[in-house]
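Can't paste images in this forum, so I'm doing it all in text. The chain is below; anyone willing to post the predicted C-alpha cells underneath?
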Amino acid sequence: PSSPITSTSLALALDAAEQGDWTAVQGFLRTSGSEALSETEVCIHFALQGEAWLRLGNLVQGRNALRDLVEKYPQSPLEGRARYLSAYAHAASGDPYTAIVQVLQAREALHDDPTMGALLSFLEGELQLTMGRDKLALGLFKDISLTGAVDDLRQLAVASALAGVGHYAEAVEIYRDLE
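Text version of the structure:
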C-alpha cells in the first residue's frame, strides 16, 4: 500500500524531473493522496504527475492530472504550463482543435513569459501546419526566436510552410542550410 505524499517525496520528484528521470518521478508521486501538502505543493504534484505521465507516453492520464490542476486550482501559477502540456497531449493524440484551445488558454495565463510564449507559438504553428493552414503557420514560425535544436525544428517547419504556400525555392534553401 502507498502512503500519502510528503514534502520530501515531492522534493525528490522535482529533483528527478530536473534530471529527466520521469519513471523516478512517478515512483516518488505514487501515493494514496496529497493531504499533507500545502496548496502550492498540491499544484506542483498535479503538474509533475501530469508531465511525467505525458513523457512516459500515457497521454490520457497526463491530461487528466493536468485537467485536475486547472479545474481545482484555476489561479495556480502553474496553470499556463499545465495548459501548454495539455495542448501538447491533445496534439499528440490527434486532436488539434482542442490543442489550439489549450494553447490560447495557456497564452492567456502565460502572457508575461516570453520563453513559454515562443514555445506556445511554435506548438500553435505546428498545429496550424498539420491542419493545412500553411500561411498562418508561417506567420507564427517567423515571429518567434528559439535556440539550438528547437530552432532547427522551427526552421524545418518554416520550410514546410513555405513549400505549402508555393515558395519552393526558399524552402529548399532552408533545407540545404540545415544539412
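The mean pLDDT is 90. The chain is about 75% helix and 0% strand.
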